[in-house]
Amino acid sequence: MAETLFAAAKSPDEAPFEKVEGDRSRGLLLLCDHASNALPARYGSLGLPASEFSRHIAYDIGVRELTLGLAQAFGVPALMTTYSRLLIDPNRGEDDPTLVMRLSDGSVVPGNATHDAAERQHRLGTYHRPYHEAVAAEIDAAIAEGHPPAILSIHSYTPVWRGVPRPWHAGILWDSDPRFALPLLDALRSDPDLVVGDNEPYDGALKNDCMYRHGTARGLAHALLEVRQDLIGDAAGIEAWTQRLVPLVAKVLQQAPDLNTIRHYGSRCD
């Protein structure tokens, strides 16, 4: 796998997110909501065997390294979580019933099974909100400097789900704002070797998720990129996809209109 079990760039006991500084004038902000499979020491392993932390239930395989590669290539800011989605999912709204998973892809999470309202609030205040506050602060700073950013969120997904193979090599998830998503779709589909999903393998319209909160609600162009995990499960795959994506994203940033203006399109969730 791309990461060692329980490994993260920074322990969540230090900070619930890590930030890569970059040039805001380039008009791009990278986000990685499921970058790490680490847990704060107080939670142990949430009662799970170590093998579960190499699975997608703990994190999105390959995405931290892919995000870092893109941030370096473009010289832009990036924000990434440092804790496992098993603790609390930063890509869910605070009222979402799947915010803290008691059961994930067939695995009972003992450390979550009996969590109460106080524990939920602790995880929100200590891990979930600081990440989103950091994202909002970075956006505020970019806007104040005259550079409203287009947001690209990096995720990955399993090649098979409930016994059904997923044919897409990658997908672009989006809601109602087409400015970033559709040009990215076109750019990826220009590669004849790729099968690219439009709102596959998931729908990009999810009320109060990360893109809704920081993209849709603020009128910023945004898109969520999903890459199949078997394609970025090792260093060679991550490097190959970094090299594949850089010219495609660069072309979109150069040619797509209105990427760095504030414009509200509403949401299919509302």
Structural class: alpha/beta
The helix content is 25-40%
How do the strands line up in the largest sheet?
A: 1-3-2-6-11-9-10
Overall spatial form: globular
| Count of separate DSSP helical elements | 6
Secondary-structure element sequence?
EEHEEEHHEEEEHEHEH
Low-pLDDT stretches: 1-9
Distance between the termini: 39 Å
CATH superfamily: Zn-dependent exopeptidases
CATH architecture: 3-Layer(aba) Sandwich
Mean pLDDT: 94
Query: In what range is the share of β-strand residues?
Result: 15-25%
Pfam families: FGase (PF05013)
InterPro entries: N-FG_amidohydro (IPR007709), UCP029730 (IPR011227)
Keywords: Hydrolase
GO molecular function: hydrolase activity
Give keywords.
270 residues; alpha/beta; Aminopeptidase; hydrolase activity
Helices and strands in order, then pairings?
Blueprint: E1 17-20, E2 28-32, H1 63-74, E3 78-81, E4 103-104, E5 107-108, H2 110-113, H3 117-144, E6 150-157, E7 160-161, E8 164-165, E9 170-173, H4 181-189, E10 196-198, H5 210-216, E11 222-228, H6 235-255
Parallel strand pairs: 2-3, 2-6, 6-11, 9-10
Antiparallel strand pairs: 1-3, 4-5, 7-8, 9-11
Can you put this structure into words, describing what you see?
The chain has 270 residues and is α/β, with parallel strands linked by helices. The protein is 30% helix and 16% strand. The protein contains six helices and eleven strands. The strands form three sheets. The chain has a seven-stranded mixed beta sheet, with helices on both faces. β9, α4 and β10 form a beta-alpha-beta unit. α1 packs across α6 and α4 crosses α6. The longest helix has 28 residues. The radius of gyration is 18 Å and the shape is globular. The N terminus is likely disordered. Keywords: Hydrolase. InterPro entries: N-FG_amidohydro (IPR007709), UCP029730 (IPR011227). GO terms for molecular function: hydrolase activity. Pfam families: FGase.
